[in-house]
Amino acid sequence: MKLKKLLTTAGLAFSFSLFLGLSAKAADGTTMETATTLSLDGEAHKNGMTEDNYVYWYKCTIPNDIGNKWVNFSCTNNINQRVEFTVYDAEETALDSHTLDTKESWTLKCKVPDSAASEDFPLTEPGKTYYIKAEGYIADSASGKYTVQIKTVSDDNWGTMEQAPEFTIGQKTSGTLEMYGDIDYYKFTIPEIPEDEDQIYTLSLAGSNNCTAAVLDADDIERDSLSGTSDEKFSESLEISFTEGGTYYIKIYDANQEVTKTSYSFKLSKGQSSEKISVTPSKTDDTQASEKDTTTKKTIKMVLVKAKKNNKKFTI
User: Fold this and answer.
1) How distant, in Å, are the alpha carbons of 174, 205, 226, 234, 264 from that of 277?
2) What is the pTM of this model?
3) What is the phi-psi region of residue 246: left when phi exceeds 0, alpha when psi lies from -120 to 50, beta otherwise?
4) Any idea which of 131-135, 187-191, 206-210, 311-315 has the lowest mean pLDDT?
5) Is residue 279 exposed (0-12), middle (13-18) or buried (19+ Cβ within 10 Å)?
6) Taking Cα atoms as reference points, which of 72, 61, 125 lies closest to residue 96?
7) Across-strand partners of 166?
8) Pairwise CA distance, residues 107 & 110, whole Å
9) Which of 5, 52, 129, 170 has the most CB atoms at less than 10 Å from its CB?
């Protein structure tokens, strides 16, 4: 009876240790199946590499209710040797890949379905899992760490004619091109115009950086366009002649590639107008400015230090 109990205990201990061994092996993150989970919009994950351990996998599932957001896979190499980063979907099809030398960074920008951009960005679909593979070219001892992170950027406009919000003629409308390649669409209606007549409207455009506003008809054919003349703040206007009423669109695009994001404002007025409008900063810009002010306007109190050595006094 004691022998049977001993064998049973030994068997349980062996099974438990085997389970722990398998669990430890399955959680090492060195394969796609055991990839380390990253939180969307969470802290950056840091890791090092050795000559024996130079491949690591990470994964993140896109929420079903993500809405209209950019999904950015960001990687930075601070290891003193090269590291290749590849973003995969669940079928292990590569969305893109980049090899970084030390102190280099790379971001893969992705859109969600039903949104549009002027560049060919990969899509990340809600409910699906995506992976980052970090593979180092480690020849000998390596120092430093790399970081991986997956963050989102909210987009204020889907960028399609089908989902274009309608604006009111005569009122200023403001928005943001969140990054290079972003496009925004707006819809407006011109009342019926008598035959053989035309009506003049004035389009005013202001931006924090260079961008373009194009007037399109319902077939997405450009009627006219207006662009900023400076890579800094600008305000321009253009007269446009309409010969028939109907639904038209304004497309905002072509932001400066060197600028993170561009705020813009536009106004369509009936008749000729010499009004100059100013760009209204986005709420994100206001928040960042406010945060910046609170960190740069701190007052440091004077501290007086007195010391004495060998009958000599020192004051700092």
Assistant:
1) 11, 7, 14, 9, 10
2) 0.78
3) left
4) 311-315
5) buried
6) 72
7) 187
8) 10
9) 129
List the structure tokens of 271. 């008749």
Please answer whether residues 45 and 135 qualify as being in contact, where contact means their C-beta atoms are separated by less than 8 angstroms: no
Integer Cα distance of 273 and 237 in angstroms: 8
Dihedral of the alpha carbons of 115, 121, 126, 132, in degrees to the nearest 10: -160
Closest CA to 183 of 67, 262, 267: 262
Q: What angle do CA 145, 146, 150 make, to 5 degrees?
A: 145
**What is the full DSSP assignment across 284-301?**
HHHHHHHHHHHHHSPPPP
What are 241's two structure tokens? 């002649």
* Eight-state DSSP code of residue 283: H
Place of tokens 């399109």: 216
CA separation for the pair 197, 202 (Å, rounded): 17
